[in-house]
Structures are given as C-alpha cells and as structure tokens.
Amino acid sequence: MKKPSPDARQGGCLFEDLELPGLKLVTPRKFGDERGFFCETHNEKTWANAGLNFDFVQDNHSLSRDVGTVRGLHFQTAPFAQDKLVRVISGRILDVAVDLRRSSPTFGRHVVVELSKENWRQLFIPIGFAHGFVTLEPDTEVIYKVTNFYSPQHDCGLAWDDPDIGIAWPAAAESAVLSDKDRKWPRLRDLTEVFA
Ligand SMILES: Cc1cn([C@H]2C[C@H](O)[C@@H](COP(=O)(O)OP(=O)(O)O[C@H]3O[C@@H](C)C(=O)[C@@H](O)[C@H]3O)O2)c(=O)[nH]c1=O
C-alpha cells in the first residue's frame, strides 16, 4: 500500500490510495465511549474535500452464513456501471477488486484487502473493476453503497478462480459456497464486456 499523503485525513476520515489507481481504502473515525461508539460511515462533504465526488443511490446488505462463501466477481456494464463502497458490520472478508479497464496499465491485476467489523475499513471500488469477496467468519454481513441502480440486464461477472487473474484465495475458499450464477462466469480472456 502507498504511504498516505499528509492531507489524506479529512474530517477524521483516512483515505489511502491502493496500488491500482482509483481504489481507495477509507477508514472513518470511530468515537468510542461507555455506551459503545458513534461513527459517520459516509459523509459527502468529507469525501468532496478529499476530491471524491460520487452520488451513491442504493445501499445493499448481504449476509453470508458459511465461512468460505464466495460472491463475485461482479460488475454492471454501462449505462448501469457502479462505483462501490464496501464495508463489513459483522464478521470478516477478503475483498477483491480486479481492474477491467482495457486502457489501464494495470488491466487484469487485482487487489485483496481484509475488511472486518474490527478494522472498520471500507474499500472504495470505482467503475471499471470487478468486485468479489470470500467470507472468513460465519454470519458475515457486508454493507455497500453503489452509484447506480441494480439492473439484472447489465449484471456481468468474471470467474472468481480464473488462473490468469491468480487471486490467492484462502483455504476457506477451497470448497467455496457459490451461487449457481457465480459458477458460470467466463475467464478474463473470454470476457467481451470490459471497460474502456
Ligand atoms: C445485486 C442485487 C441483487 N438483487 C437480487 C437479485 C437476486 O434475486 C438476489 C441475489 O443477487 P446476487 O446473487 O446477484 O447477489 P450477490 O451475489 O451478493 O451480488 C453482489 O455481489 C457483490 C460481490 C457485488 O459486488 C454486488 O454488486 C452484487 O453483485 O438479490 C437485487 O434485487 N438488487 C441488487 O442490487
């Protein structure tokens, strides 16, 4: 991970660049007290001050019961492509983003980040990436904001275990719990739907 620039902290929220351009690790400030904690999990003004202007229009919440549940790798195509802001409120995941921007010097490369209730990190994934995760704890709940509405006709994916991408999935994913849809996505080399 790149060292955060001195102005990376806005309103108590830490924004860190990851090695693939556009991906950000965001750690909002938590105010703990005897009752528990308070946290602004997203603040449009704080984000704008950090140079990030995105209109999130839908909030999603998923529960995965079993360790080793894999969801992904997903993306929606234009005009329904989505930026995503992902976090975990219960349990732990390895979150993965794969660069599908054909013109990008990092096309086909990926980043893996652990997100958990404990580390309170969020991963911001811009349009142009496929996204997926594996759960590392039972009953893991993932919440994420997206900047475009769900459109089943624009729902696309990439094989989670494509050897050309080479994601180092943990042992938990060896007997991955997958949806039928996620067993059938093409490999990167056969993918026709990529981003410019
Ligand atoms: C994603 C989505 C699904 N659904 C419905 C469709 C389906 O009946 C049911 C389950 O959908 P899925 O199997 O696609 O859910 P899931 O596999 O959890 O899909 C999600 O995976 C992660 C990795 C992402 O990045 C998300 O953008 C999304 O694609 O929920 C919606 O109504 N709205 C939505 O935004």
Automatic annotation (TrEMBL):
<comment type="subunit">
    <text>Homodimer.</text>
</comment>
<comment type="pathway">
    <text>Carbohydrate biosynthesis; dTDP-L-rhamnose biosynthesis.</text>
</comment>
<comment type="similarity">
    <text>Belongs to the dTDP-4-dehydrorhamnose 3,5-epimerase family.</text>
</comment>
<dbReference type="GO" id="GO:0008830">
    <property type="term" value="F:dTDP-4-dehydrorhamnose 3,5-epimerase activity"/>
</dbReference>
<comment type="function">
    <text>Catalyzes the epimerization of the C3' and C5'positions of dTDP-6-deoxy-D-xylo-4-hexulose, forming dTDP-6-deoxy-L-lyxo-4-hexulose.</text>
</comment>
<dbReference type="InterPro" id="IPR014710">
    <property type="entry name" value="RmlC-like_jellyroll"/>
</dbReference>
<keyword id="KW-0413">Isomerase</keyword>
<dbReference type="Pfam" id="PF00908">
    <property type="entry name" value="dTDP_sugar_isom"/>
</dbReference>
<dbReference type="InterPro" id="IPR011051">
    <property type="entry name" value="RmlC_Cupin_sf"/>
</dbReference>
<protein>
    <recommendedName>
        <fullName>dTDP-4-dehydrorhamnose 3,5-epimerase</fullName>
        <ecNumber>5.1.3.13</ecNumber>
    </recommendedName>
</protein>
<dbReference type="InterPro" id="IPR000888">
    <property type="entry name" value="RmlC-like"/>
</dbReference>
